[in-house]
Amino acid sequence: MTVEQTYFRKGFGLKKELKPLIDAEYQSALVERIRARGYQDRFGDVSVRLAQEFGFCYGVDRAVDYAYETVHEFPGKRIYLVGEIIHNPHVNQRMTDMGISFIYPDGEGRFDFSELTDQDVVLMPAFGVTIQDFEELRRVGCILVDTTCGSVLHVWKRVESYARDGFTSVIHGKYTHEESRATASQVSKHEGGKYILVRDMDEALLLCDYIAERPRRLQREDLISKFEAKASPGFDPDVDLEFVGVANQTTMLANDSIAIGMKIHEAMIERYGQDLARKHYRSFGTICSATQERQDAVATMMERPPDVMLVIGGYNSSNTNHLAHLCRQHTRTYHVEDADCIDVETGTIRHKPDLNPDAVELVDEDWLPEGPFELGITAGASTPNNKIGEALVRVLTIRGIDPDFDGAERPQG
């Protein structure tokens, strides 16, 4: 096998052949019925509204397709996945069921590839991998199947261009997230490339103090210490914040990313004036369209909030957590990792109560209103439709309602 034949980014031409299998495992006839009826339907005394954008996005669809194609293309070979294909427990379990082994990072985000050989196949997830990990996999010589999402690649190009032109990348994202790590690593393509990751507006404003030369809430050494794990080695705020380019992890709240960019731009104007600020600040559209569409759909839905909102998706899924956060500001909201969180025997629901990644899962009883009510549903970009359909069936089963629809997903167990 030549070097050219050890790297695949466009699949193996098996999409049409495998479509019936993938559709059978991930699609939902019940969800399609509700979608066809204008995203709303009624079951007994429960009115159901679906957000008009939800669930699998193009990038996730592509990653899942490529994983199935890889298994069929390389029978008999060991197949590994760097991290998780996407942040959804059901989908990742299916990967395991198909014989794919997961390589998980250690506490500092490092992967151990020591067991890999040039005879193995390695899937890179939709979030991508760091340049350093990619180069290590290349050195091993294994077959690489790259499912990195196109929206993520778009951000990478911007960050690389910032580093090429001597700009520090200020990235709105979670420094522990695979995508943010991979994005930040793009600066290493150019000597002296710099980055710093900010989690929220509070952290961004600490940088704005330095940029605008205002009184500082954190002195130099304290700021360097705070961002040590979130910035490129040797990061110096007095030097590396003179020229800044803004980017973001694609699954963050779009409005937050935009607001952070505006604050940094304002700080540049405060320091350099309107004309010179243009030479010191750059910002390009790196908001993922699928993330934006799902957040916009929830915002539209909350103009007339349902009585109860169900948000379905992995607890470690950034875009799902942000959808739940948006909904909580308007109505009673339950973020469930999977349909199994809704127990038809006890009528209880297990859910993540807030945006905090370390939040402890809660169990609520009597969580559904007694009389007629409206149930809103949305799902993160890594949640398959069959799990959305199953979650709805579980809610209806608790209420003693049969969807009375051939093909409706029945609760398991």
Per DSSP, the total helix count is 14
Mean pLDDT rating:
93
Radius of gyration: 23 Å
By secondary-structure content and strand pairing, the structural class works out as alpha/beta
CATH architecture annotation name of the largest domain? 3-Layer(aba) Sandwich
Helicity level:
25-40%
The total number of structural domains is: 3
Q: Which descriptor suits the 3D outline? A: globular
Strand content: 15-25%
- Written as H for each helix and E for each strand, in order along the chain, the element string is EHHEEHEHEEHEHEHEHHHEHEHEHEEEEH
End-to-end Cα distance: 47 Å
State the major sheet: 5 strands, parallel
Q: Which regions have little confidence, pLDDT < 50, spanning 5+ residues?
A: none
Widest sheet: strand ordering: 1-7-6-4-5
CATH class of the largest domain: Alpha Beta
CATH-assigned homologous superfamily of the largest domain = 4-hydroxy-3-methylbut-2-enyl diphosphate reductase, catalytic domain
